[in-house]
Amino acid sequence: MKPIAIFQHDDTQRPGFLKQTLEELGIEQRTFVPEADPGYVPRDARDFSGIVLLGSNRSVNDPLSWIEREARLVRAAMDADIPVLGHCFGAQLMARALGAVVCRNAWPDIGWSRLRAVPAGRGVFAQPEVWAFNWHYETFAIPPGAQRLLTSAHCMNKAFAIGKHLAFQCHFEVTEDIVREWLDGSANELLAASGPAVQQRDAILAQLPHVLPAVHAAAGRIYRRWALGLARPPLVSVGGGS
C-alpha cells in the first residue's frame, strides 16, 4: 500500500494519537511541513493511499501560496476518491476546497467539550455524544453534498463527511503532552480569550485525566474506520494464479 501523506503545519500541531493508531495498523506515513518549505507540496495525490491534514495557527483564508497548493492537492485527492482526514485547520481547508465558506465562529472555542452526534453521525461514533478537545476561532459551512456529523452548543458545524472523507473542527489527535505544550506556548493567548466556550488552563488540566481516555476511545474508532477506506492493492492480481 502507498504511504499516507501527513501535512503538519507547525511544530506543535503533531499527529499525536493518530500517528500511534496508524503505526498500530502498520500504515506507512510521510510527513510534509509546507510552511517550512512552501515550494514542496506534492503534485500528485495519487502517490498516496490517503491524506491527513493537521491544525495550524494560520487561517485557510490567508493569501499564502502553500495554502493554495495544498487546497488544490486536497481537492484532487477527493476527486480521485483518495481518503482525506482533516483536523481543525485541515477540516477548514477541506471545506474550502469543496467550495464552502470558512469564517469566524461566534466566539472562541477552547477546551474540552461534549459534542452531539446528529443522526447522520451516529454510525460513525456509536454513541450520541463524544468528548473532544477544541482550540479554534474560525468555523466552516457544510460543503455541498456533505453531511454534518457533530454539533455543539457553541459551534454548529463540528464535523462533516463526504464519501470516504472525514473533517473534524475539533482535535481528536491530542495527547497529554500536546495539550500541555499548547497551554504553555499559548498562555497569553488563552488569558486574552473569553466567551462561553473558553476554558482556562486550570479547568483544562483538571479535566484532562478524566476526559482524555474518552477522547482517545472515540479517536480510535474514527481513525480505524477512516483507514478502512484507504486505497489498497488487490490481494491477487487479475488473471493471477492461486
Automatic annotation (TrEMBL):
GO cellular component: cytosol
Protein name in the entry: Type 1 glutamine amidotransferase
InterPro entries for the chain: ChyE-like, Class_I_gatase-like, GATASE
Coiled-coil stretches noted in the UniProt entry, renumbered to this chain: none
Species the sequence originates in: Piscinibacter koreensis
Matching Pfam families: GATase
Gene Ontology MF term list: transferase activity
Top-level taxon of the source organism: Bacteria
Residues of the Glutamine amidotransferase domain: 21-175
Keywords: Glutamine amidotransferase, Transferase
